[in-house]
Amino acid sequence: MSAFFEDAVELETSSKQDPEYQALLRRVLAIQADCEIGGPHLYVDEMLPGAPTRLDQLVVARTAAEEIDHFRKFARLAGDLGVDTSYILSRPNSERYVSAFRGSINTWQDFAVFGFLIDRVGRYQLEEFIGCTYKPLSRLLEHPSRVMDEEAGHIDYGTARTAELASAGAEQQERVQRSINFWYVTALDMFGKGNSTRAERFRYWGLKRRTNEEARQQYIREVTPLIQGMGLQVPDALAGRAFL
Amino acid sequence: MAPATDDLPSAWPAAAALDDYLREVVVTLKQVVDQGIRHIQDEPASTDASIADCVEMLGVIMQGDVAEWVVEAR
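Above: the input entities. Below: the structure tokens describing the complete assembly.
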């Protein structure tokens, strides 16, 4: 018998679950909704008018539209459970759940690297819910999933723009490296503490699959050759980290 | 078999209205983006107008005045 909870929970049976399960489910949906809308709040103000070409401006707008749609879907899942997530739409960036969303993006390099590195962490987080015990959440992300496909598009766009900037001369490469230095550390911290007891409870209840450290190490293995392939340096994975 | 309705948790009252509002905004935004891309070569002024529309619509969403958007549901 598994030591983990493996029931298939539907909306109709959610209120019968253990209070800890219900609390963690509400929490993870609110955090995910916050992360989805947190991106546009970082870059819309500066990057929609400031992207280098008209096409890039329109890509920024489409990316924001897709993230708003993802927020809508997570907010609906939370709302069906009685959770009001409307405060998330107007809270200041400084109050976001995840530190990556607490600043602002003012340069095209940062926008590109954000897609390359941070949206990729977002994909890891969403993958955790595929096959999870709360079936409405799992179904949102199981193949074929519009949310997953759109996130993959954001990652590809960010990766392509980052590579393009990294190959555009020494000055651009230095700027991109600075962005990589900042967002790489931020990305690794997004996986949380390696010994988080809350993360273990998420796993126990079947709301997440990997440990924080497993996911972080997979991420490092995925992005290391990509960064190196762009002729950039992979930053020290331990320097400047808030969560180890 | 349909679940008994008394098994359902109480939904947040404005959940459906917010969902409808945002769905409509997203559909419109994507249409405006597509239109902007279509005219990017032959009619840049039209693309600029599309970008301006995106700025305006996203500005409303970034402000997050949910009470105004879903006033009828409250």
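Note for the figure: Chain B touches chain A at residues 3-4, 7-12, 14-16, 18-19, 22-23, 25-26, 29-30, 32-33, 36-37, 40, 44, 47-48, 50-51, 54-55, 58-59, 61-67 (CB under 8 Å).
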